């Protein structure tokens, strides 16, 4: 069984979920941002395994049209009971048999096998992309972080927000197995870029709807100047000053390579906890597994 959570009860659910932070960060911030926008962006359907929100073990959010077609459903979830998670996901209407593409976003890696078993066997999905990430919470404003945020940029560079006209550049440079709706994200969330003397973005970070300081990229000619660390620290400082919290995820295979940047930005890995993004499609002929490019998403 799955209980559909009315939008008016989201604050109650969020209050209960604080005990699962930071492991449920993506799900928590999707819910929080949906509530702040009156469920206009992101637009969610929310399910639990119990009508009593103060005793539930599983929370699943289905984000509708979060990415551009062909992805029309993206799932965020957290659970302390694998059987409960499986029961909620297979409840009528949670996963639609008509869906051809779906993504499971930053799910605790300990739950991914349960999701694979269900979606592969019952819904005939096949994996086309999988990546595992390490979690770097950014929930405390520390002196080091502020110092990095205040670092002087390279000569002739300036910092400012991204603009809608830069969306084609984002889509070209940030390679993903799906296409984000950047217009919505830029409208509702924080984003910062470093501009060169021609007023062209050469490095940027964007806070996603799930709270992650992601969608980051630095042009090759500007790498080695720690622009990503500066922008990440600046974004985190702004989020914390506004009363919010954020985090960064880094592909597990890239954690050591990114260590200098993360330490410079003043963020540190949360235990050995891992999250996984899984993209699937209904196709018996496509078993290719894609991997993300370097950078945090």
Could you outline the blueprint of secondary structure elements for this entry?
Blueprint: E1 3-4, H1 10-17, H2 25-36, E2 44-48, E3 58-64, E4 73-79, H3 82-89, E5 101-108, H4 109-121, E6 126-138, H5 143-149, E7 158-160, H6 167-173, H7 182-188, E8 191-195, E9 201-207, E10 213-218, H8 227-241, E11 246-251, H9 259-265, E12 274-281
Parallel strand pairs: 4-5
Antiparallel strand pairs: 1-2, 2-3, 3-4, 5-12, 6-11, 6-12, 7-8, 8-9, 9-10
Helix pairs in contact: 1-2, 3-4, 5-8, 8-9
Strand content: 25-35%
Q: Helices and strands, in N-to-C order?
A: EHHEEEHEHEHEHHEEEHEHE
Q: First CA to last CA: what distance?
A: 33 Å
Estimated helix fraction: 25-40%
Q: Compute the CA-based radius of gyration.
A: 19 Å
